[in-house]
Amino acid sequence: MINMELYRTFYWVAKEQNLSRAAERLFVTQPSVSHAIRQLEEQLAVNLFHRGPRGVTLTEEGRLLFDHVEQAFQALESAEQLIGEQSRLLRGELRIGGSDSLIKHYLLPSLSRFCSDYPGVHLILANGTTAEIIRQVKEGRIDFGIVRLPVEDRAITAIEAITVQDCFVAGPKYAHLAEESISLAELKHYPLILFSRTSTSSRFIQEFAASHGVILEPEIELASVDLLIAFAKAGMGISFVTRQFAQAELDAGTLTELTVREPIPSRKVGVIFLKNRRLSPATETFIRDYLKLLPA
Question: Please, how many CA atoms are within 13 Å of residue 65, restricted to the half-sphere of its CB?
Fold first, then answer.
């Protein structure tokens, strides 16, 4: 097994050409330096230095070894510098996964501030369903995800971030339905626009409706909240969306929220990352300082 301390001692003796100065560099005594050099020479079965009254010089074998050791220590110093720069967020990556809507409506303001504060950190975004984001976190392809909770996976740590409220919305064509409350049983007779059936949101409303004895059959299935909003505004049907994500359209009057007689439960959104895995400096800083979800 390679003893790195012996090679570190050799490196500084060769650089300084003096045992005393090498000892000062290494914060050890001169006898310790001499002992380390003798150990390395015995291990390699060669003489590495010519000893003289004014110091030491490398032998031919010593020069050969130094050429390789110098490259190795330069590579280590370079690696230490890069790690230091990552710790100070002068470089590195912030790898995040989530749905388009959660990234846009929840993460984007914080991401904008983070990227402005740390321009050297490269941002990588991955989108997908909750199941896909969990898989990418477990595979190490992303550092953390933003998903709907709960997440039932023992390998995952989840931290609650925000509470959101889902609702049914309609454009002008179906806005009259907001004049009175409407039941899920009545709502199913209108064209419904839902997320694709593999999504958490689609399963949530389908299971909620089923708990009230209603089976919802969507007319249209879409993959993004922006499309759900756009299709509802265009009169294509009634969309099921997160109220916070459609608030601008609700405030502008281009969408109208329908009052459903069966109160729809609120849901939690949270950050997930792999349990027992140390977070990168960029990830820890973002979650702690920008999302305010970790203790300072």
Answer: 24
pTM for the whole structure:
0.73
Whole-number Å distance between alpha carbons of 239 and 2: 66
- Alpha-carbon distance of 56 to 102, in angstroms, equals 65
CB 100 within 8 A of CB 108: no
Q: What is the pLDDT of residue 1?
A: 65
Question: What are 17-73's pLDDT values in tens digits?
Answer: 999 999 999 999 999 999 999 999 999 999 999 988 888 999 999 999 999 999 998
Q: For the chain, give the secondary structure using H, E and C.
A: CCCHHHHHHHHHHHHHCCHHHHHHHHCCCHHHHHHHHHHHHHHHCCCCEEEECCEEEECHHHHHHHHHHHHHHHHHHHHHHHHHHHHCCCCCEEEEEECHHHHHHHHHHHHHHHHHHCCCCEEEEEECCHHHHHHHHHCCCCCEEEEEECCCCCCEEEEEEEEECEEEEECHHHHHHHHCCECHHHHCCCCEEEECCCCHHHHHHHHHHHHCCCCCCCCEEECCHHHHHHHHHCCCCEEEEEHHHHHHHHHHCCCEEECECCCCCCEEEEEEEECCCCCCHHHHHHHHHHCCCCCC
List of residues 6+ apart from 90 with CB closer than 8 A:
118, 120
Measured distance CA(36)–CA(42) in Å, rounded: 10
Per the prediction, the chain carries an average pLDDT of 93
CB 293 within 8 A of CB 271: yes
Q: What is the DSSP pairing of strand 55-58 with strand 49-52?
A: antiparallel
- From CA 218, how far away is CA 215, in angstroms rounded? 10
pLDDT in tens, 212-240: 999 999 999 998 999 999 999 999 999 99
Q: What is the pLDDT of residues 125-162, one digit of tens each?
A: 999 889 999 999 999 999 999 999 999 999 999 999 99
